[in-house]
Amino acid sequence: MSNRRVLVVGTTADYIDIINQRFPQRAVFITDVDERAKATEPPPRPEDELLCDLSHPEQIPIALRRHLSRWQMELSGITCFDCESMSTAAFIAHSFELSYPSTEAVAKYRDKYVCKQVWRQAGLPCPNAELVHDASDAVSFLQRINGPAVLKPLTGSGSELVFLCSTEGECVTAFNTMQSRLARHSDSRMYTPYVFDGRKFDPRVVFVVEEFVQGDEYSCDFSVDRDHVEIIRIARKIIDTKQAFGTTLAYLLPSPLPEGLNEDFFRDQLCTAAKSQGLNRAICMLDFVVRDNQAFMIELAPRPGGDCLPPLLLNSCGRDILGCAIDFAEGHPIISGTSLQWRQLVGVRLFATCGGEIEQIDSSALLEDHRVVECHLKRGTGHRVVLPPGDYESRLLGYVIFEPTGHESIENECVKIASKLKIEMKRELCATVNPS
Questions:
Q1: Where are the domains of the chain?
Q2: Which of 152, 309, 393, 406 places its Cα 20 to 30 Å from the Cα of 178?
């Protein structure tokens, strides 16, 4: 049978549309029924997509075998781009004997407490962390470290419900906010209970607190294949201090490691970090903070970085990370990035600063700016914006990629570029972003 496909598990409709256009007949998609129902992108051909309820992964292998048999396909590999779908991908990979991180490895990286305990046992730099069952646990941790702490969900993604706490009162407020918001959170797969090492964890009621590491923040994609590590890209994060804590305003790519941080040593650290989580072959994304010439690891996932990073990488050096992931799933190695020609670019995430319904959104001033390489809006008129902590996703309207001039700071250019997106709301519900 020559109709071989890479199985892409649980990704979003925009990624499906991009992969189908760039790599036709390379992939077959397992898509959640709710994702397809709300999608504005056109669906792929019936043979290219199997719709399932991804909250019940045990039912998927039978349906997938029927689909493959019906369309005379066979699987050449498996990949996943979304954190909440990786445990499902691991389950399917095991059922079909495909190469993919194990369910245990996925559980290790997804649990932000277990992940850091594993790293610390391996002697790797990362924040000290503890489990939080009630507000008093967070307060006790804050008192012991004698410095700011970060309270966050045990699982999760991005800056959602992540709070910086410097006082006991802030710990209590953050805990109560997380508890109330997660109890009624709509994303059941992101925060589903799980069993690890014989213990059951419920991310809706148990959280994690860790010491706040002050320093420059970075994001890195790399591949690990046994003992070989290939760094795909390193981007410096530019943090939006006016948004909810932890919100990334922009990424600068490429971004060299700071002086004092040896690249060979860093590559060895990446290898140890991945393998300690049980990742022997994977494309990984790592968020880290550089302090005192050390890369303090914050979060790792066996997937490439998302959001505006794939188009930023494509425009910067011509590398398509989505295609790399498909090739890698079929057993091909990642080609070294050192031979690529890089162009320094910035990817700015475009946010709404007021809640309400968008009446008009105009990107014409952005598109007319000579610095702009690409602009993409994922929202339009009629879209409803709810600010954090009520919602973290609806405020993100798209991204713009531009070439910095060097005449002023990157931060200032990002703010000025983003301000060119004109938004009018039907109802002005501007509110200060706070954890209350």
A1: 4-100, 128-211, 214-343, 345-436
A2: 309
- pLDDT tens digit string along 35-44? 999 999 999 9
Yes or no: domain 4-100 corresponds to CATH 3.40.30.120? no
Give the pLDDT of residue 156: 84
DSSP category for residue 85: G
What tokens does 299 get? 């979060």
pLDDT of 61 above 60: yes
Paired with 252 in beta bridges are: 236, 346
Hunting for tokens 């498909």 — which residue is that? 326
Q: Which residue type does 382 have?
A: G
Cis peptide before 254 (omega within 30 of 0): yes
Q: What is the pTM of this model?
A: 0.93
Gyration radius from the chain CA atoms: 21
- Measured N-to-C along each axis, helices 86-96 and 103-110 cross at an angle, to the nearest 10 degrees, of 170
CATH architecture of the domain with range 345-436:
Alpha-Beta Complex (3.90)
Tell me yes or no: is domain 128-211 CATH 3.30.465.10: no
